[in-house]
């Protein structure tokens, strides 16, 4: 500690003037994922791994000894707490999810000039040992400059070390070169030396002792203020590690955006994958056993993906899927809080990002929706219909008796439930409040429509997801994603004619905040209520003949051609929607006649329309409401289409294109950092 220090000209780590053993801060630990290049741990992680390594090796940089010490040294928590390093086995593994491939870690002492990649540990240890044996206690040169690799022309090696495939020459204490002993390298060396080049400058690789930056405990990751659970959709059985890779992509993309736009904030958002599918047994192998052998590959793919939707609609397996996701969410939250006790104390927030079918299951967990409730409502409706028709005296008497018995049964059930509730307090479904629920490529709107949800007359999110359960619902989709549907028209019907909010490109300069963006109509010229289904289809070109719609940017007016093609698509969609609603909604009055009546019919329907908590089987689907009614917050957000992408090709790829999108990463962080950003701006203004 008392040795003289000297800083590098470039302001790097301090260098000692006398050769001594490497300090813990000069060593750097590395990890390698997917057999790629070695990546350095940040200073905070590296220093703690090195201290654990030295504790294991009884205080010196010698080989760690296998003893009770190995058991005594606890794993070191690294990479923002997502991974742990077992120093004894030189491996790293994730904390919150299972991974078959272990991540190797390596201790770096000697490094290659320029790239600062570490030399393999065995070679590095041999070179370090030789260096200390020969030069320990010797003075370093005053002119030593780490940043510039000077050629060592004319200097003979003062020391040499033979390794298995290479050899190392010391031209001075500070000038160390590694040479390959392969035949081709020897020939190249001979030729270049005959041409007058020195051995070192022609084929040697300069080595540096100690890493380019000193490891400090100050070089640590910011504290996590917000955790995001990333929930997968269908197809996880087919590729079990897919959600882990997708979440890693989303995390890496978010890190880039954080560095670029949110570096002034002292906290960060952490993404955790929620893998709920692999633990479920469901039907075992029954479905596989009834699958024919022809085109087996395609059938297996469908069994592993589309089958999840059938499982979810099955009353036998639905609960298993719901419990699987619910338990995994609670397990991850409990584990995270046990490892980060200050998270809840400091008011840490939780958001959920769900994809595809995962959106529907997450929604059902949060709201507690159950198909049994729908069945009870259906029975109630049938009872009401029975009461309306003519009945004999005997039928009436029996119905009254049945009604009184049901009433009595309900009272007994309530009393029993009250007794149970007083002795056993039922734990909440989720152990945390959801701040934001982001749906990506979500079919949730279709599921809600088929459950009988119809537009109301209030612009509140509470109509489909109460704010007491989740503060904000946001539905993100790619315009060509065939699985994604809009949610806003389920709250206010006229929003089917208002375009979704366009998500900003991540590199847009000074983008307009989303809450200040005004709704823009898809078809501002005509009121959709005044156009009948037959008229709208006949007066606009069909999608097969109409020209390709021009690319829409926010704030630009849509060209007439674009308007026509959108109106064509909207009218066909409306026709299909009408068919679906009349088929599944049991809507008795939704006929072309009611649509043709125009505004009067719409007003008449509005009077019939029920309040915000619309029952699942309304007698009529209400007409378009006055455009004066607006949503409290926009819910549907659409990615911008690429300039050159093919519509049909992107329809195939868009459903899985969300994970690595920088635009989506910025969008997610904008909403999650909203309050932090506002607080920072406020404190900056106060300072001024």
UniProtKB/TrEMBL annotation:
Gene Ontology terms for molecular function: metal ion binding; phospholipase activity
Residue ranges with Basic and acidic residues bias: 597-609
InterPro entries: DDHD_dom, PA-PLA1, WWE_C20G8.02
Alphabetical list of Pfam families matching this protein: DDHD, WWE_2
PROSITE patterns named among the record's database cross-references: DDHD
Residue numbers spanned by region Disordered: 524-547, 587-624
Domain of life: Eukaryota
Record GO cellular component, one term: cytoplasm
Biased composition (Low complexity): 528-547
Sequence ranges assigned to domain DDHD in this UniProt record: 430-674
Polar residues: bias regions: 587-596
Family as reported in the entry's similarity comment: Belongs to the PA-PLA1 family.
Protein name as annotated: DDHD1 Phospholipase
Source organism of this protein record: Sagittarius serpentarius
Gene: Ddhd1
């Amino acid at each position: 500690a008392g040795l003289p220090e000297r800083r590098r000209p470039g302001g790097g780590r301090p260098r000692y003037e006398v050769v001594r053993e490497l300090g813990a801060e000069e060593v750097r630990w590395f990890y390698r994922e997917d057999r790629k290049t070695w990546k350095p741990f940040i200073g905070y992680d590296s220093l703690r791994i090195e201290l654990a390594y030295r504790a294991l090796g009884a205080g010196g940089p010698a080989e760690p000894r296998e003893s009770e010490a190995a058991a005594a040294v606890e794993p070191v928590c690294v990479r923002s707490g997502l991974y742990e390093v077992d120093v004894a086995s030189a491996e790293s593994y994730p904390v919150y999810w299972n991974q078959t491939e272990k991540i190797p870690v390596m201790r770096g002492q000697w490094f290659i000039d320029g790239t600062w990649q570490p030399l393999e540990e065995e070679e590095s240890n041999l070179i370090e040992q030789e260096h200390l044996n020969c030069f320990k206690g010797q003075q370093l040169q005053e002119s030593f400059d780490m940043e510039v690799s000077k050629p060592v022309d004319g200097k003979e090696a003062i020391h040499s070390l033979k390794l298995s495939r290479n050899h190392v020459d010391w031209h001075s204490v500070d000038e160390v070169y590694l040479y390959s002993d392969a035949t081709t390298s020897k020939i190249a060396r001979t030729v270049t030396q005959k041409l007058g080049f020195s051995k070192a400058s022609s084929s040697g690789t300069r080595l540096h002792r100690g890493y380019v930056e000193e490891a400090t405990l100050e070089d640590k990751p910011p504290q996590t203020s917000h955790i995001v659970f990333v929930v997968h959709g269908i197809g996880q059985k087919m590729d079990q590690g897919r959600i882990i890779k997708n979440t890693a992509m989303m995390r890496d993309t978010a890190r880039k955006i954080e560095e670029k736009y949110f570096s002034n904030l002292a906290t960060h958002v952490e993404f955790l994958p929620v893998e709920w599918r692999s633990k479920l047994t469901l039907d075992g192998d029954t479905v596989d056993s009834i699958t024919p052998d022809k085109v087996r590959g395609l059938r297996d793919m469908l069994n592993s993906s589309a089958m999840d939707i059938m499982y979810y609609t099955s009353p036998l397996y639905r609960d298993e899927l719901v419990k699987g996701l619910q338990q995994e969410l609670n397990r991850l939250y409990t584990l995270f809080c046990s490892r980060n006790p200050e998270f809840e104390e400091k008011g840490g927030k939780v958001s959920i990002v769900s994809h595809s079918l995962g959106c529907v299951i997450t929604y059902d967990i949060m709201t507690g929706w159950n198909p049994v409730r729908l069945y009870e409502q259906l029975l109630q409706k049938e009872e009401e219909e029975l009461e309306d028709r003519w009945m004999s005296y005997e039928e009436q008497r029996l119905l009254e008796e049945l009604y009184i018995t049901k009433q009595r049964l309900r009272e007994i059930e309530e009393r029993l439930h009250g007794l149970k509730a007083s002795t056993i307090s039922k734990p909440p479904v989720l152990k945390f409040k959801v701040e934001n629920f982001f749906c990506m490529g979500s079919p949730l709107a279709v599921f809600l429509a088929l459950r009988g949800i119809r537009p109301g007359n209030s612009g509140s999110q509470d109509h489909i997801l109460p704010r007491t359960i989740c503060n904000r619902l946001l539905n993100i989709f790619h315009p060509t994603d065939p699985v994604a549907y809009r949610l806003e028209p389920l709250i206010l019907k006229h929003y089917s004619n208002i375009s979704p909010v366009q998500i900003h490109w991540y590199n847009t300069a000074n983008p307009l905040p989303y809450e200040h963006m005004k709704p823009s109509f898809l078809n501002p010229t005509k009121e959709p209520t005044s156009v009948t289904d037959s008229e709208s289809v006949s007066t606009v070109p069909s999608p097969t003949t109409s020209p390709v719609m021009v690319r829409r940017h926010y704030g630009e007016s849509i060209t007439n051609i674009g308007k026509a093609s959108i109106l064509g698509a909207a009218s066909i969609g409306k026709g299909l929607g009408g068919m679906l609603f009349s088929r599944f909604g049991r809507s008795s009055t939704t006929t072309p006649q009611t649509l043709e009546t125009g505004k009067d019919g719409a007003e008449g329907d509005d009077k019939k329309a029920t309040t915000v908590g619309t029952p699942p089987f309304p007698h009529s689907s209400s007409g378009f409401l006055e455009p004066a009614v607006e949503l409290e917050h926009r819910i549907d957000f659409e990615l911008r289409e690429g300039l050159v992408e093919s519509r049909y090709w992107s329809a195939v790829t868009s459903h899985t294109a969300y994970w690595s999108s920088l635009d989506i990463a910025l969008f997610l962080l904008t909403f999650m950092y909203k309050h932090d950003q506002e607080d920072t701006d406020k404190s900056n203004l106060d300072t001024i």
